[in-house]
């Protein structure tokens, strides 16, 4: 793809085309272990139909009662993207028949959602602040999920699992502001990060607690919006980007061949990387929305809103700016704040006294590299932030060199021992004893008289050779700064 500053274009036979993308993200409120209108459990992977209350199964006479924590988490999420919080909102019934919808309607919010307009700012290039894009969010409404049909359990029948029925969802609807697969990917990653920082949703796309409906249309740059298709339930950032690539190309080819894009719902086949028709949307469905007669409107008071705002943590953008103010590079700050667990670990490292810039370089290279090699997440790191701070402190005060620190870190990963005790027990302390260093330098210069002459004749690149030989002779324990100073003195 082109650089972050260049507009994304699809090359067609009749010229360049622009893609227009909007995302509807369904995020399960995982901060609470119960459903939107019942106390039934929501744990992933439970046996079918073991987490279904009488309300979820739509038994006669059962009345829904809103889960206060679900409403609170949706409000906190809205606040995290600077969205309008509507003090008065209402639940509506969306009427349609489907086998996994026992009520014959879904309780949602159409006309008066809980959260109004907000925005999400993304960086297309983490090293370049000028690559920032702001994506508008139209609304966040709260609704209940449907159940799940299983077609592969019996040769002639479909089974219904109602465990998901009534699970609380936030539907986060973006404006059609994205113009490339990269922008959509950045938006989805940033939104997932915000949800995880807030704690309202775990963002686990593989388990279905966050999934996206992808709306795609194409147009000649500057023209009116074209007809869009909606690809349902895409469950990874990479797949969302693939859907946009494929759909944009498919639509351009179709239009240029004289066809018309049908407004329809499509499904993505991740094995083939293509979308296919699910159902036509030529006529807008009449869901006969009306206010749910069993539920009073939601009215939020100022005390509730103040508590929601006060409970918000430091969010990714604020944390990134704080890190940069400590002298950490924009790229490292972006890497450290991308996942809430990494940011928490790094904050604990700073709290333990590590110098920010050196700590950031060490975490993004040494620690992340080791965890990747071990196949572990940062929460499972064998080295704690306090232990890491001790290791970095030993380098900072000259007790050990950077080279020795790498060896000590490997021993820490295997043994779980602290850096200071490893350095002490294995005799790894760095020496700044000029007498011992001078003695080794004298031997090396005497053994390499020809190279000394070449250096003095102007071949300055040989200085690195002398440094390397001295460090090798001293088992890597010599203070590099002292070695450099003594060598320059003796070679001058």
From TrEMBL:
<comment type="similarity">
    <text>Belongs to the GatB/GatE family. GatB subfamily.</text>
</comment>
<feature type="domain" description="Asn/Gln amidotransferase">
    <location>
        <begin position="344"/>
        <end position="491"/>
    </location>
</feature>
<dbReference type="InterPro" id="IPR014746">
    <property type="entry name" value="Gln_synth/guanido_kin_cat_dom"/>
</dbReference>
<dbReference type="GO" id="GO:0016740">
    <property type="term" value="F:transferase activity"/>
</dbReference>
<keyword id="KW-0547">Nucleotide-binding</keyword>
<comment type="function">
    <text>Allows the formation of correctly charged Asn-tRNA(Asn) or Gln-tRNA(Gln) through the transamidation of misacylated Asp-tRNA(Asn) or Glu-tRNA(Gln) in organisms which lack either or both of asparaginyl-tRNA or glutaminyl-tRNA synthetases. The reaction takes place in the presence of glutamine and ATP through an activated phospho-Asp-tRNA(Asn) or phospho-Glu-tRNA(Gln).</text>
</comment>
<dbReference type="Pfam" id="PF02934">
    <property type="entry name" value="GatB_N"/>
</dbReference>
<dbReference type="Pfam" id="PF02637">
    <property type="entry name" value="GatB_Yqey"/>
</dbReference>
<dbReference type="GO" id="GO:0070681">
    <property type="term" value="P:glutaminyl-tRNAGln biosynthesis via transamidation"/>
</dbReference>
<dbReference type="InterPro" id="IPR017958">
    <property type="entry name" value="Gln-tRNA_amidoTrfase_suB_CS"/>
</dbReference>
<dbReference type="InterPro" id="IPR018027">
    <property type="entry name" value="Asn/Gln_amidotransferase"/>
</dbReference>
<dbReference type="GO" id="GO:0050567">
    <property type="term" value="F:glutaminyl-tRNA synthase (glutamine-hydrolyzing) activity"/>
</dbReference>
<dbReference type="GO" id="GO:0005524">
    <property type="term" value="F:ATP binding"/>
</dbReference>
<dbReference type="InterPro" id="IPR004413">
    <property type="entry name" value="GatB"/>
</dbReference>
<keyword id="KW-0436">Ligase</keyword>
<protein>
    <recommendedName>
        <fullName>Aspartyl/glutamyl-tRNA(Asn/Gln) amidotransferase subunit B</fullName>
        <ecNumber>6.3.5.-</ecNumber>
    </recommendedName>
</protein>
<dbReference type="InterPro" id="IPR023168">
    <property type="entry name" value="GatB_Yqey_C_2"/>
</dbReference>
<keyword id="KW-0648">Protein biosynthesis</keyword>
<dbReference type="InterPro" id="IPR042114">
    <property type="entry name" value="GatB_C_1"/>
</dbReference>
<dbReference type="GO" id="GO:0006412">
    <property type="term" value="P:translation"/>
</dbReference>
<keyword id="KW-0808">Transferase</keyword>
<keyword id="KW-0067">ATP-binding</keyword>
<dbReference type="InterPro" id="IPR017959">
    <property type="entry name" value="Asn/Gln-tRNA_amidoTrfase_suB/E"/>
</dbReference>
<dbReference type="InterPro" id="IPR003789">
    <property type="entry name" value="Asn/Gln_tRNA_amidoTrase-B-like"/>
</dbReference>
<comment type="subunit">
    <text>Heterotrimer of A, B and C subunits.</text>
</comment>
<dbReference type="InterPro" id="IPR006075">
    <property type="entry name" value="Asn/Gln-tRNA_Trfase_suB/E_cat"/>
</dbReference>
């Amino acid at each position: 793809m082109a650089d972050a500053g260049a507009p994304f274009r699809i090359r067609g036979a009749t010229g360049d085309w622009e893609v227009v993308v909007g995302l509807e993200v369904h995020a399960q409120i995982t901060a609470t272990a119960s459903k939107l209108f019942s106390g039934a459990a929501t744990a992933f992977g439970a046996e079918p139909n073991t987490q279904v209350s009488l309300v979820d199964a739509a038994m006669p006479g059962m009345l829904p009662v809103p889960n206060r924590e679900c409403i609170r988490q949706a409000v906190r999420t809205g606040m995290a993207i600077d969205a309008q919080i509507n003090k008065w909102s209402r639940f509506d019934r969306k009427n349609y028949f489907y086998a996994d919808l026992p009520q014959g309607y879904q309780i949602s919010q159409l006309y008066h959602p809980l959260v109004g307009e907000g925005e999400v700012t993304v960086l297309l290039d983490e090293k370049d602040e000028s690559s920032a894009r702001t994506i508008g969010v139209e609304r966040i409404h709260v609704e209940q999920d449907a159940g799940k049909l299983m077609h592969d359990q019996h040769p002639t029948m479909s089974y219904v699992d109602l465990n998901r029925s009534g699970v609380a969802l936030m539907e986060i609807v973006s404006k059609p502001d994205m113009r490339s697969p990269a922008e959509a990917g950045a938006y989805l990653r940033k939104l997932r990060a915000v949800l995880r920082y807030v704690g309202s949703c775990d963002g686990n796309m593989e388990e279905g607690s966050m999934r996206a409906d992808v709306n795609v249309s194409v147009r000649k740059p500057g023209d009116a919006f074209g007809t869009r298709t909606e690809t349902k339930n895409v469950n990874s950032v990479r797949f969302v980007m693939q859907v946009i690539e494929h759909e944009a190309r498919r639509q351009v080819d179709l239009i240029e061949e004289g066809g018309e894009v049908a407004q329809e719902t499509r499904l993505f086949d991740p094995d083939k990387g293509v979308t296919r028709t699910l159902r036509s949307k030529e006529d807008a469905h009449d869901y006969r929305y009306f206010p749910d007669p069993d539920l009073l409107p939601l009215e939020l008071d100022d005390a509730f809103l103040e508590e929601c705002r006060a409970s918000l943590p430091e969010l990714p953008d604020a944390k990134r700016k704080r890190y940069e103010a400590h002298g950490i590079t924009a790229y490292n700050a972006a890497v450290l704040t991308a996942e809430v667990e990494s940011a928490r670990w790094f904050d604990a490292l700073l709290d333990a006294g590590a110098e920010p810039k050196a700590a950031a370089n060490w975490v993004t290279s040494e620690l992340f590299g080791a965890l990747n090699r071990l196949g572990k997440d940062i929460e499972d790191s064998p080295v704690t932030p306090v232990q890491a701070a001790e290791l970095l402190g030993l380098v900072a005060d000259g007790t050990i060199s950077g080279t020795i620190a790498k060896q000590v870190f490997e021993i820490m990963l295997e043994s779980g021992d602290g850096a200071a005790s490893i350095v002490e027990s294995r005799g790894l302390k760095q020496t700044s004893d000029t007498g011992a260093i001078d003695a080794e330098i004298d031997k090396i210069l005497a053994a390499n008289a020809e190279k000394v002459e070449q250096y003095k004749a102007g071949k300055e690149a040989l200085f690195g050779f002398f440094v390397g030989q001295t460090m090798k002779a001293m088992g890597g324990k010599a203070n590099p700064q002292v070695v450099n100073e003594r060598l320059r003195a003796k070679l001058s």
